[in-house]
């Protein structure tokens, strides 16, 4: 790792970040620029999660087997000798030209998101101080926490590579990315006006919290399936290997600290362990689906929550279809990536629902306030 490489990497990430920053700059008014910056950062983080799924599903996580560069270079072109040698030795191995570019593109996007969050934090502090600490939508504590969180996410990105795709590290990297998305969604919700929520809607605080917890657990199980490459452990549905309860090895399947494809003792992971990982994710999905459908129907009764409830039902249906399609169509890459994106959308919607039931104005449903108005919420 050299200073020159780090500077080149930083400049590449900055160039990528300048594209959304240019969009934000065109907005009129300081408050509107900040609001747009939050939403653009949220959008880019969603895109980063989608591309991270593509990186993982194309087995490109070790396309550049060091970090943060590629064979100590800022891009694959400069590392052509090393990549050519690795590709000639193993044409279908973890290091090829395509996989190197996929991995480095993922890193460039991650650096761009980091730059956007830095700008977001600086903008929040600047506006907060200039307003005499009176404009609540610019409170800087949350954006500052976001910067610390994205640094932690970057550390797990490095460990993903240096620890050779160890499943627990890759899964935590995914979950931290989705937590970052959730935090940005919460911040975005604070910038928007919301329809009033009645006491009946406010009563959904606990059910919405439980829904978020169940969704988080299901996503963690899905991440464990993906990082252990267990998506095709069951190729039929609703049965698995022709059985309602197939032969499974839970002990090895859910041992968290072990190398990819290996048991904690260093032996090859038995197929029954992959079956257990897949079956638990599939079975728990029915619990989550039933609960979120019930929660969404409760939200549909409330004018201020109706739009979020409809989107929850829509995306949940998409998740069910793409999940089944990965089984029946033998795990096509595009559908697998969309399935990961659906999980990210559910996170956004669940966070929005939780924000609204807590901090939307109280009262009966009335017309939304003008777009220039900003809610004063914690």
Which short descriptors sum up this protein?
mainly alpha, disordered C terminus, 67% helix, 378 residues, single chain
Secondary-structure blueprint:
Layout lengths: L2 H23 L4 H28 L22 H10 L7 H34 L10 H22 L4 H24 L8 H4 L2 H23 L22 H4 L17 H30 L5 H23 L4 H27 L19
Helix pairs in contact: 1-2, 1-4, 2-4, 2-6, 2-12, 4-5, 5-6, 6-8, 6-12, 8-10, 8-12, 10-11, 11-12
Protein name: Heme O oxygenase (Cytochrome aa3-controlling) transmembrane protein
Pfam family, one: COX15-CtaA
GO molecular function: metal ion binding; oxidoreductase activity
Distance between the termini: 43 Å
Number of strands: 0
The largest β sheet comes out as: none
Ranges where pLDDT stays below 50 over 5 or more residues in a row are 365-378
Series of secondary-structure elements, N-terminal to C-terminal: HHHHHHHHHHHH
Give the radius of gyration. Answer: 22 Å
Mass-distribution shape: flat
């Amino acid at each position: 790792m050299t200073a020159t490489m780090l500077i080149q990497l930083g400049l590449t990430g900055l160039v990528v970040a300048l594209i959304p920053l240019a969009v934000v700059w065109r907005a009129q008014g300081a408050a509107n620029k900040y609001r747009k910056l939050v939403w653009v950062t949220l959008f880019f983080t969603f895109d980063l999660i989608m591309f991270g799924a593509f990186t993982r599903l194309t087995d490109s996580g070790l396309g550049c087997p060091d970090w943060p560069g590629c064979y100590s270079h800022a891009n694959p072109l400069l590392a052509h000798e090393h990549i050519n040698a690795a590709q000639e030795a193993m044409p279908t191995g973890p290091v090829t030209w395509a996989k190197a570019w996929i991995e480095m593109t993922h890193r460039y996007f991650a650096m761009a998101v980091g730059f956007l969050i830095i700008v977001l934090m600086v903008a929040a502090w600047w506006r907060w101080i200039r307003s005499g600490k009176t404009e609540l939508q610019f409170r800087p504590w949350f954006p500052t926490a976001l910067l610390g969180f994205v640094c932690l996410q970057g550390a797990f990105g490095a460990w993903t590579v240096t620890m050779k795709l160890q499943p627990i590290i890759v899964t935590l990297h995914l979950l931290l990315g989705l937590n970052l998305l959730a935090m940005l969604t919460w911040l975005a919700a604070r910038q928007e006006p919301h329809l009033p929520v009645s006491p009946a809607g406010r009563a959904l605080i606990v059910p919405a919290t439980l829904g978020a917890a169940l969704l988080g657990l299901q996503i963690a199980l899905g991440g464990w399936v993906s990082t252990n490459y267990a998506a095709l452990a069951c190729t039929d549905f609703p049965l698995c290997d022709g059985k309602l309860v197939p032969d499974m090895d839970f002990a090895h399947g859910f041992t968290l600290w072990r190398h990819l494809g290996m048991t904690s003792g260093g032996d090859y992971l038995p197929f029954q362990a992959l079956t257990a990982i897949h079956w638990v994710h599939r079975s728990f999905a029915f619990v989550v689906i039933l609960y979120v459908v019930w929660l969404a129907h409760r939200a549909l009764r409330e004018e201020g929550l109706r739009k979020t409830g409809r989107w929850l039902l829509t995306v949940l249906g998409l998740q069910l279809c793409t999940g089944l399609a990965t089984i029946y169509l033998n795990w096509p890459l595009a559908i697998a990536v969309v399935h990961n994106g659906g999980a990210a959308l559910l996170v956004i919607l669940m966070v929005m629902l939780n924000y609204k039931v807590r901090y939307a104005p109280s009262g009966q449903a009335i017309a939304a306030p003008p777009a220039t108005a900003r809610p004063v919420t914690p």
